[in-house]
């Protein structure tokens, strides 16, 4: 019987979504034993410091990729939005399962509250520049406050009244089974209001290049539409030479006639630049979107 060691972060959300992914693999390959190996990453250890201050690419994946390359583990499961556009030498994306809800949402301290009814100056917690600039475009009177920590820690903070609201990804709440939690007051944010992070809602299973037997196993749960769409989004990331801290949102989706890509980029002044491109094929969409942003002055961004 084959045993595959699986690396992932120690957080409750990471463990939960990894187990859900392994259940899909187990269903396809009952002959395989999957052994979970948790890691604490730099991003987890420095969870009181903003991601912008920590800096660098891959703060949530580097330690796990090192373990993969040193053969401590055989595969790694990540939130794809945490992964740099360029993978480390020797690693590859083995599979991208079907994507969860890509939207962001607000969770309120007061039940029945909404973005429209939050009082002037309300404290909204998020560590994301992307979320901050898009929220302030709708409600410039809000006070955006730094928020780090695991998903359960963040929810505790808003429930205790440290914030009037916080912003989280719908995907994480869904995977934790909390969307219908009776004590949580949740408002999804439409894509027209808040474009998600690149690859938000998608998971990635990473393996070593050349591990063809493992690659075959992983490919059994590949979702081709999700893979095509997040590949478009990640190409934007690569062309911008950006990382997960960059104030950029993007969402690619497949229609009957082809693909549509929406991109938002925030300037240093807090202005939101937008691009929407469409095409019958995914190739070239990211380049066209970046060119559209560049024509609006996007390259003055630090």
TrEMBL record:
GO terms assigned for molecular function: hydroxymethylbilane synthase activity
Start and end residues of each Porphobilinogen deaminase N-terminal domain: 4-215
All residue ranges annotated as the Porphobilinogen deaminase C-terminal domain in the record: 228-293
Cofactor note as given: Binds 1 dipyrromethane group covalently.
GO aspect biological process, one term: protoporphyrinogen IX biosynthetic process
Requisite cofactors: dipyrromethane
UniProt modified residues of type S-(dipyrrolylmethanemethyl)cysteine: 244
GO cellular component terms listed in the entry, alphabetical order: cytoplasm
EC number: 2.5.1.61
Matches recorded under HAMAP family: Porphobil_deam
Subunit structure: Monomer.
Record protein name field: Porphobilinogen deaminase
Organism of origin: Streptococcus cuniculi
